[in-house]
Amino acid sequence: MHFTTTMPTKLLTKTALLFLFLLPLCGHAELKTGRYFQAIAGDKTIVRTLWYQLGSEQQTIVATTAMRSGDYAYDAGETITFYGDRIDAEGNPIPEAIAPIPEGASRLLLLFTQLAAPNEQGLTYRVYVIEDDIQKFSFGSFHFINASTKDAGIKLGGEKFLLKKGAAKNVKVKPPEQGDVLINIVAHNPKDLTWSPFYSNGWGHRDNLRTLVFIIDNPQGGVTTLRYRQFEPTK
After folding, report:
1. How far is CA 130 from the centre of its chain?
2. Which own/partner contact pairs does 196-202 have at CB distance under 8 Å and 24+ positions apart?
3. How much is the pLDDT for 130?
4. Distance CA 164, CA 36 (A)
5. Are 156 and 120 in contact (CB under 8 A)?
6. 203, 208, 211, 212: CA torsion to nearest 10
7. Close Cβ partners of 143 (under 8 Å, ≥ 6 residues apart)
8. What confidence score (pLDDT) does residue 28 get?
9. Each residue of 111-160: pLDDT tens digit?
10. 170 pairs with which residues across the strands?
């Protein structure tokens, strides 16, 4: 990109910062083989405020609420530990988030949600870990994860199913010849044992598209639906 000398300094600075912010998000559907994870933020964007150890280097991450990040390589182990700027009395970094690595997994998708206060482990983020293997989550399908504290009832196209809190389900859906796939979600209210509708829409769908859907709690006491789409890389 070329900028002429007539461009205002403030505009140049904003454009450059925007470019640097978006740079790690390019090529998010490469699906390279090896140990890689992609990151998304459930509530608040993370812009290099978290880092993890990759070999002898500190690798920062970018995670937004709108789309998957680029690929981040990680070392073999049982967990990936993320740090911020907190340190203990000895000057050692204090963990902010810990992502357990499922046995045998290589490609992961990590959803970060910031906690209102540090938990009993002193962590400030909860991390949901998804095996991002196309054999388990293929293109042409939807993968639902209920990370809320409420059971959910889902109607997707012509299929109805119950998704209990903490549960996940992969649903293969044939794209409609015209229009969108209709989605309706209701949530169970544990206090009065009723069901309340909280989401209804039409979602675009294709054979070369896979859609990840998170159901999470929101600050108002209800639930929120987060949808992340990924197209199959062109060969």
Report:
1. 9
2. 198/222, 198/223, 198/225, 199/225
3. 87
4. 29
5. no
6. 180
7. 130, 137, 168, 169, 170, 171, 210, 211, 212, 213
8. 41
9. 998 998 999 999 999 999 988 877 778 899 999 999 888 999 999 988 99
10. 143
